[in-house]
Amino acid sequence: MTALLEVEDVHVHFGGVRALDGVSMQVEEGELLGIIGPNGSGKSTLVGVITRLTDPTSGELRFRGRSYASTPAHRVNSLGIARTYQSVRLLPDLTVVENVLIGAAVTAVSRPAVVNWLRLRSRGEQGRLRAVAEEVLERVGMTSSSKAYPGELPYGLQRRVEIARALASKPALLLLDEPTAGMNQAERREIGDLLLELKADGLTQILIEHDLAMKHRICSSAIALDFGHLIASGTPREVVEDPRVREAYLGKQAAQNYSPVLEAIDS
Ligand SMILES: Nc1ncnc2c1ncn2[C@@H]1O[C@H](COP(=O)(O)OP(=O)(O)OP(=O)(O)O)[C@@H](O)[C@H]1O
């Protein structure tokens, strides 16, 4: 069976920095794959490459068996790939449902462009997009906040709206770059539960997340990066138990004696 996503021997060089150095990986349909690695190991760069915001220096990308290494970033969404960002990127003077509605139609646009774009849609199309947005808000449990403005919502719910906006384009693959950054433990658990529900719906996901315990709880597989190299892949436990991963996080000597990584998971 062909994997949903294939990344083959991807290199990304920023001047002298080798942010990715020959990374190959695959994601099967229905998988929830976690990417771990210390700061600066190349996680965000890999997400950038997969979503075509970052041009690889070399390497191949395939989605459903077809190369998309030359597809421009603005067309990636129409292939069935969506993402959320490390920081909240909602438009503050549009309501929650309007923010999500935009996700159902267009990606990465400025506010004036969005307002003009919405005005130009026929009533029928606006109605269709609104119905999709309302369906997605219901899916993430946020129907009651649909008419609120993002600034009126707690931070955890704003991040949930971001996920809803990405879902509105009905992606087959969703990439989440630290969706729980800045959240407390209860909020992190709720987002973890939501991602598990989306997995049960059949959505394939790639997750960058520093909370290793959460990753262990929800991911079906994991890979680890260090200095732009893929150093381990397997189940989340196999990956965090890999001596190279422990060394990457802790340094060689400490890794031989102590594992806060495993402690975090076991707690
Ligand atoms: N646009 C850029 N120009 C130059 N260097 C970059 C650029 N983007 C990333 N890098 C470098 O590439 C390497 C990988 O960065 P990347 O952001 O992918 O790591 P990361 O694992 O996501 O880190 P973090 O966990 O801190 O977000 C780092 O050394 C970083 O400084």
UniProtKB/TrEMBL annotation:
Gene3D superfamilies: P-loop containing nucleotide triphosphate hydrolases (3.40.50.300)
Residue ranges occupied by any ABC transporter domain in the UniProt entry: 5-252
Superkingdom, natural source: Bacteria
Protein name, as recorded: Amino acid/amide ABC transporter ATP-binding protein 1, HAAT family
Cited PROSITE patterns: ABC_TRANSPORTER_2
InterPro entries given in the database record: AAA+_ATPase (IPR003593), ABC_AA/LPS_Transport (IPR051120), ABC_transporter-like_ATP-bd (IPR003439), BCA_ABC_TP_C (IPR032823), P-loop_NTPase (IPR027417)
Nucleotide-binding recorded as keyword: yes
Transmembrane regions: none
GO CC annotation: plasma membrane
PANTHER family: CONSERVED COMPONENT OF ABC TRANSPORTER FOR NATURAL AMINO ACIDS-RELATED (PTHR45772)
GO molecular function, a single term: ATP hydrolysis activity
UniProt entry keywords in alphabetical sequence: ATP-binding, Nucleotide-binding, Transport
